[in-house]
Structure of Proteasome assembly chaperone family protein:
Amino acid sequence: MRETTINVLEDVELSSPVFIEALPGIGHVGKLAADHIIDELDAVKFAELYSPSFPPQVLVDEDGIIEPMKNEFYYLKDAGEDGRDYIVLVGNTQGLSPEGQYEICGLILDFVEGYGVKEIFTLGGLATGQPVEKAGVYGAATSMELAEKLREHDVILRSADGGIIGASGLLLGMGSLRGMNGVCLMGETPGYFIDAEAARALLKVLLEMTKLDVSLEKLEERAEETRKMIMKAQQMEQEMIDRMNLKPGEEDLRYIG
Amino acid sequence: MRETTINVLEDVELSSPVFIEALPGIGHVGKLAADHIIDELDAVKFAELYSPSFPPQVLVDEDGIIEPMKNEFYYLKDAGEDGRDYIVLVGNTQGLSPEGQYEICGLILDFVEGYGVKEIFTLGGLATGQPVEKAGVYGAATSMELAEKLREHDVILRSADGGIIGASGLLLGMGSLRGMNGVCLMGETPGYFIDAEAARALLKVLLEMTKLDVSLEKLEERAEETRKMIMKAQQMEQEMIDRMNLKPGEEDLRYIG
Amino acid sequence: MRETTINVLEDVELSSPVFIEALPGIGHVGKLAADHIIDELDAVKFAELYSPSFPPQVLVDEDGIIEPMKNEFYYLKDAGEDGRDYIVLVGNTQGLSPEGQYEICGLILDFVEGYGVKEIFTLGGLATGQPVEKAGVYGAATSMELAEKLREHDVILRSADGGIIGASGLLLGMGSLRGMNGVCLMGETPGYFIDAEAARALLKVLLEMTKLDVSLEKLEERAEETRKMIMKAQQMEQEMIDRMNLKPGEEDLRYIG
Amino acid sequence: MRETTINVLEDVELSSPVFIEALPGIGHVGKLAADHIIDELDAVKFAELYSPSFPPQVLVDEDGIIEPMKNEFYYLKDAGEDGRDYIVLVGNTQGLSPEGQYEICGLILDFVEGYGVKEIFTLGGLATGQPVEKAGVYGAATSMELAEKLREHDVILRSADGGIIGASGLLLGMGSLRGMNGVCLMGETPGYFIDAEAARALLKVLLEMTKLDVSLEKLEERAEETRKMIMKAQQMEQEMIDRMNLKPGEEDLRYIG
């Protein structure tokens, strides 16, 4: 595998779908929100993306089954009050290198543009590093008109206090150069636990703006499951760190193993 | 996006233009100087450069509007006492990897060579790390003749005390291999604040050498604006650092977010 | 050399061979096990793989002879009780960058697929970081059926406690996308010495599952030899570290040497 | 510039030349030795190599003149007692990334192979990290025959105590795969100053083996010049390090400068 590739699992026709991105990031906020929409509305997976810029590893699930690093595209047809179509992008990783991130985001935009996407929502978390009393929702937009719309939904515009790193930023930046418009929504979170409250605040704004209808009842339950899954990723990373930090005098098996 | 690309916004004919580069670097000195020229002389933006070697992120301006990482080409026609044409390159970033820097600088040279550029000025700062009483201007050149000219303008030649890192160095080094000539001017600066005085010293030499006519009155004002903008970049970077340094025991959301 | 390449040394026909991978990793466990099989069963080397993503260096053997970084393919014909064919992959390194790992593993899979491989065993170590009383064998699989088979051989499934980094993980993840099935076996090891006991435990499971017949008598002897070879790699790495950490005031000869 | 390129300055016919490599490395030993041969025997520069994997910077010489990062090929015709031809490779840098090192070394081998090179000498230093009473010369070879020859010249074979990192190793490793043979000679040096004594010991062996005739009288003088040049590289690097380590609270001008 020398290039990022998308495997299409189902040919589907969509009518000017809205594109929602929620790849891994701060506080698990975006992923939690998007996974919830996918499950509650029975979204259908129709494509998978694999990239040589993903971490060179696999995950192992609770049954000992190997799961490659990947991003997944789901669709929703005729959803919500407006009866619109949606493409939702989730996954277990993002690209590691800058070049990889640009390549992957370019390919994602090529792909969703083929279905007629003109509007983008990217979801993420904004880490405060300290306890949050009531999770606010922060945002940014590709146009003044959309920024105004965010303000109407009580989203705090991130004026002069930072940028947006990773796919949530790049998809909007690169999308705007192709004439797509969109917003980034970021749930306020301490950042150091799986934050169902930040996801709830984020989802409320997203559901209002899209007129999707999703019950938020099982969100805390989902957060609990996610916490367990995350434990796995943490331990794997600790192992990787341990492997890189063998003490002097210990045998180093990185090169000759 | 897999390759660095230049979007031309306006077809313009220029006559043997002088090329001035001032991409981000030490002390904000070069950028401050070049932005000042662009504003005071109403230079016209005619092309934008995007690269997969730029940081994989976007900035957000004071209105919450997303701004991609990019370099921007401006032109000046029939400017200054000599009535010459100019291309000025500014931007909010440089390439991250060595390979990216070489690719971007090669493309920039291809592009300006197409307009007939034979002379290059690259602008930057020289960090002293301590307070500077009266900002000197340091320089280097691609030929003995130009080095002599620098000396006539009281520029201190950087003999035996270091090299030039990034686009300011590479454009001259790679340009000289194509038969372009040029100089690098570096304003002396402590390096840890937006230094209008270093930019003023630098501009004085540049204006003398090019015979451009620019009032330096509003330079301090511009420095103040820039200081605010910089705050934004700093905070964004701090967030990125925080994200990379989650303490053990905290949930790590980098891989599964 | 701009791409990973495989030099085929002998044209061989194999009948649906089983593929066993044991590139360098934690505790030398996999390599020790695979080298033992190769020597005891007189496996024949038939191809070598070289990659620009390997460390940019060579090793020097006990006679002062230079050995490039490489991976090596061996075959076994009509082996064990079942009379099956095997391809065994060993080497002195793995790729350094994520992109390199994906490229190399993709090429390895292309290559062994050409011989009809449908089943993969990847061998490695699982570092505990502390003394191990009796080395257990951990595992993961690409299907529920194979996971069940692992359980029958007393392999502990790595449920919810981590992933698999490097070629041992990637070959299974990328292989499963091509319809190959396989398992990863990991011998439990403190991780900081050449662990013949972990290799023995691993081999026992592998031999049971493949019905290969290999005496384990000389395994400790082999471990001793390996310990000596490893010393060499360690010292080389220490030199590299020393080279990178010259104290200030010392002449740094990295750029101008 | 997206690929490593070689600019040929003079078309020259050489008869089975010996290839001597001395790119920057430990203790300046190899470079000092090769520069001495080039100057004493009036070797002629006939080609330059530029690479996007070199550090993205330029050097500035004592006259304020910009010098790109590059490698340089010199030839010697009908030299020494044997009247053989030589290609000598020197420069001010090596590639930074593993992939870059492999690409550059592959291109170098393509280039010298075109002149009929079959024998390689690579020169470097072996750092002891402590004072050296009488500099020994260490070595490694691509064949048992050449290793034996090294032993006859009192070269200590580096059995079991490490490998060879960078171009001096790779050129031999990659060359041997093309049927070239060669040795690496490493002068023993504390490693933290420009070591004329190590270069002298190295040159003695090289001159004996090649039957080149070079006076070693001015070697110490040359070492002194080199020490001054190195100061420049050091200060430049210190600046780069300072730039990367701005203290918190200071303005960071890396992204927006």
